[in-house]
Predict the structure.
Amino acid sequence: MGRVISIANQKGGVGKTTTAVNLSASFAMSDIKTLLVDADPQGNSSSGVGYNKEDIQKNLYHAIIEEVNIREVINDTDIPHLKIITANTDLIGAEIELINEIAREKKLKDVLQEVIPDYDYIFIDCPPSLGLLTVNSLTAAHSVLIPLQCEYYAMEGLTQLLKTIRIVKENLNPPLQIEGILLTMYDLRNNLSQQVADEVRSHFKGKVFSTIIPRNVKLSEAPSFGKPCILYDAESRGAQSYVELAQEILKNGKRN
Amino acid sequence: MGRVISIANQKGGVGKTTTAVNLSASFAMSDIKTLLVDADPQGNSSSGVGYNKEDIQKNLYHAIIEEVNIREVINDTDIPHLKIITANTDLIGAEIELINEIAREKKLKDVLQEVIPDYDYIFIDCPPSLGLLTVNSLTAAHSVLIPLQCEYYAMEGLTQLLKTIRIVKENLNPPLQIEGILLTMYDLRNNLSQQVADEVRSHFKGKVFSTIIPRNVKLSEAPSFGKPCILYDAESRGAQSYVELAQEILKNGKRN
Ligand SMILES: Nc1ncnc2c1ncn2[C@@H]1O[C@H](COP(=O)(O)OP(=O)(O)OP(=O)(O)O)[C@@H](O)[C@H]1O
Ligand SMILES: Nc1ncnc2c1ncn2[C@@H]1O[C@H](COP(=O)(O)OP(=O)(O)OP(=O)(O)O)[C@@H](O)[C@H]1O
Ligand SMILES: [Mg+2]
Ligand SMILES: [Mg+2]
């Protein structure tokens, strides 16, 4: 039965898309059936696996607003066990159109129900906001993975995010858990990364992944080739750190 | 007569707040009367000049929704000629409450009118979205400054942003100009920065500032002390690049 993990943080540029693309690719490369859902109108996860804006026909917007069958919006990627539901700027319309709908927070959950049994893991990439698309993603998820850039401003936003997660858990999705807080863009060269890491580990004991994602240029080069880093440069520290994270999540999954 | 410049880009983490705080500080340090408006519910510009979430009383939310007089929400900073209108998560409510208001896109413009003559420059820090807060900021502005991180995903979002700017210009704010595209977090160590810079300069001839903001750790350390970088480490390349940008904007202003 597929485990749905939402990748969320309203702070911008913390590595949500980079985590969604590379973590789902790492799972799929170990023959685990994986679905990546791009719920961000920027469509970066879609281009991160090779779908340019012009190539995208039916996407998440059509499944949640125009009630096109979810199976019609699932596409292949370069990796056999990785499928994607793409997004583009059509999705901006979804937030507006959902505003006055009944049970507007459950639209994504309802739509995904049918295909959850087809996958082992489903990852949802969220936009940098706590609006309806992110709330839909948190309502559809079993757990939420929080990428946290090792910088001061990113730490500031954590309290607000955890508050929103608690509200969703209490009102919309009681089983929602925190999969973990992931330290990203960790830079060995500066003290700030270490300070943030120490502070987050002491505040959120037990919730921080032991895997840390280093700042690694290969991770930022790969998207320009439309490939997850494991296909672009599998030996790089960037690609390897996401393989390590996949193993850690699988191990934690066995414990639950 | 104050020139209002909106700092906008829906892509997250590209340096909007870092530019808003450090550019406005650079103007104020040269005795130019400057107002920084934090229009992002994350409130990063506010903490970037020393206002923590708990310290914030009346803020932008109160001026645009509760019709508190704008002068009551203007605060001092460590720099004499720099004032700030702060923000916190109250502002999340503003986007929802404005949805059904008449002339909802002009609220910020109407509110700022009274104080524009008191300042030479007014900078507005936007959230990472193209929602009502950003549209309000673009409607209130004479021009828009677009921070662009030298990375692939950031380049992807530029077309959508320019489209939104054109729609605002045609329907809400005809005199709106582009102040310029600012290349940020430029990293001499990797080719990606150079590739992005070359591509942007060839696509948007004449619109890209000659000043480039380098990746510089002092810029990311300064916010944890609640200080603009010019007060934290004035000699750093980070602080100096924003002083250079201020001079370039002033020079361009004389030409217009
Ligand atoms: N570990 C890393 N090392 C180097 N670069 C990285 C790393 N993680 C992400 N990046 C780069 O940093 C930028 C921001 O990352 P990304 O776009 O994944 O963040 P995001 O949280 O999805 O942003 P948004 O808030 O806009 O959705 C991208 O250009 C990406 O390529
Ligand atoms: N030139 C730079 N060199 C080093 N670090 C930088 C630079 N510019 C910004 N940063 C850091 O990168 C992170 C993202 O920058 P910032 O928060 O200013 O972007 P933003 O566009 O305002 O983000 P958001 O989309 O969340 O509002 C911050 O932690 C900031 O301190
Ligand atoms: Mg993203
Ligand atoms: Mg910001």
